[in-house]
Structures are given as C-alpha cells and as structure tokens.
Design goal:
The chain is of the alpha+beta class. It has 2 domains: 141 residues, Four Helix Bundle (Hemerythrin (Met), subunit A), CATH 1.20.120; 106 residues, SCP2 sterol-binding domain (Nonspecific Lipid-transfer Protein, Chain A). Helices cover 48% and strands 10% of the residues. The protein contains 7 helices and 5 strands; from the N terminus they run αααααββββαβα. β1 and β2 form a beta hairpin. α2 packs antiparallel against α4 and α5 packs parallel to α6. It is globular and about 55 Å long.
C-alpha cells in the first residue's frame, strides 16, 4: 500500500467532513468527547473546521511561513456556534474551500508545512487524516458506528509513523524515548492483506517498515480498530484487537507517540 492520489485526499476531505457533519448536526454540541477530554462536540467541530481553513489558506497564498490562525478568514466559527446546523454548514464550507485550493494547487506546489515535505500534497494528506481521526472522536462521543476504507485507514497509520519519526528526529522529548535496541512492535491487520508494520527500537531511534515478522509485542485485529488504537482512540483490547507479547512495550509506545 502506497500513498493515495492527491485527488483522492481532496475527495476524502469532503467525504469525511460530510460524515462528520452528520454526527455534529445530530448531537448536542455540549456532549463531551471522551477521546479528547478537554473538548465537547462544539469544540471538536471548531477545531476541524479551523484546521481546514488554516491549511487551505496557506495553500491558497503559497505561504512561506506559518500563517497565524487568527488571520484566517472565518476560522473563529459560525455566528451561532451553539446551533448544530450552523456548525455543520460551517464545516462543509471550510472543507469545500480547502479541497478547492488543494485541487487548484495540485500536489507539487511549494508551500510552508511544519514537516518533512514542503508541498501542497502534504496538506491534502494531513487534512484528510485529521478529519478521519476526528470523525472517530465524534462517533465515539455520540455512539455512532464508524468505518474507514481500508487503504485510507492503512495510510493513516503510515502517516502517523512518519510524523512520530519526524518528531523524534526533531528532538521531541517523548518521541526521543522511543529507542532501545532489541525490541520491536508489530501492527498486524488481520482483515486486510499487507496492512502490517514492524517498528524496531534502535539504540538512538526507532525505524519502521512494512513486514510480517515476529516481534517483542504484536497488536492484531481488524484494520479500523488497529488504526483507532494506534491513534489512542481505542484500547488495545477493544474492537476485536489482541495483544501478543510484552504489553508494557505497546503501552510505552502509545504513551510516547502522541501527536496532534
């Protein structure tokens, strides 16, 4: 499984936002979000819509440095943020504008990012997965069913590993602890062929690759559940998942690989 096409990420920003909108419009905006304890559904919607607008504005302006969020038009939210319908419409407007900016730019336009690549492609992928994971937060808060296309779920895991590796290389104190020779973690989706990742802890850093090999600890189960657990949206023994081996090493990884 490789990176998805730029147009697919743009499509998914719209698709995932549409599904998120349904959850937001059907919920009390004060409903707490257990996977983001400081937020309620209103806060979650404002975060996603603000992120979309921020990324879209930087792509539209071909930004060479980070744009202050308070300079992004419309990022503060709708006039009545306590109205679920207004929140939903505001989410859609931001997603449509961002997808349009990304399509107009194409994948190779140079633009500021906080990460390893300075292209508009980064923002298309990041905003797609940002929405995938936060849609899970809304589903978990409201008790709704949740599923993701296998290639999109797998790419969410791959992007997450790239982000944690980037954070470690940049000196993030928690990610820096993800080292220590001779240990490994195997993520194994049992329902999707080749959706496997082997994380190996080296003396100075961790590395990862797509492989099926015996590891110090393995987390096995359905891909959607695996993706949610990797993003700390599900416990490793929920959703049909099973831990084989050193559970302490899995917990060590999950506690120190948080981002976003």
């Amino acid at each position: 499984m490789t990176l998805l096409a730029h147009t697919r990420y743009c499509d998914e920003i719209l698709t995932q936002t549409g599904l998120l909108r349904e959850l937001v419009e059907g919920a009390d905006p004060t409903t707490r979000v257990p996977t983001c304890p400081a937020w309620n559904v209103r806060d979650l919607a404002l975060h996603v819509g603000g992120a979309h607008r921020w990324a879209g504005e930087m792509v539209r302006d071909r930004a060479t440095e980070a744009l202050p969020p308070d300079q992004v038009p419309g990022s503060a939210g709708p006039a009545d943020e306590d109205d679920p319908a207004a929140l939903g419409a505001w989410l859609t407007e931001g997603a449509e504008a961002t997808a349009r900016a990304l399509r107009d730019a194409g994948p190779d336009t140079e633009v500021w990012t906080w990460a390893w690549e300075r292209r508009s492609a980064f923002w298309a992928r990041r905003m797609a997965h940002e929405t995938v994971v936060h849609r899970a937060d809304a589903a978990l808060a409201t008790g709704a069913a949740y599923e993701v296309a296998p290639d999109l779920a797998a790419d969410t895991v791959t992007e997450g590993l790239q982000i944690v590796a980037f954070a470690q290389a940049g000196g993030d104190p928690e990610a820096a602890e993800l080292r220590g020779g001779g240990r490994s973690l195997h993520l194994h989706a049992t329902d999707v062929p080749e959706a496997e990742w082997l994380i190996e802890f080296g003396a100075d850093a961790f590395t990862w690759r797509r492989a099926h090999e015996k590891a110090t600890v393995a987390l096995r189960g359905p891909l959607t559940s695996l993706m949610l657990a990797f993003n700390r949206r599900m416990k490793p023994d929920e959703g049909g998942l099973h831990v084989l081996g050193d559970r302490g090493l899995l917990d060590f990884w999950l506690e120190r690989s948080s981002f976003g």
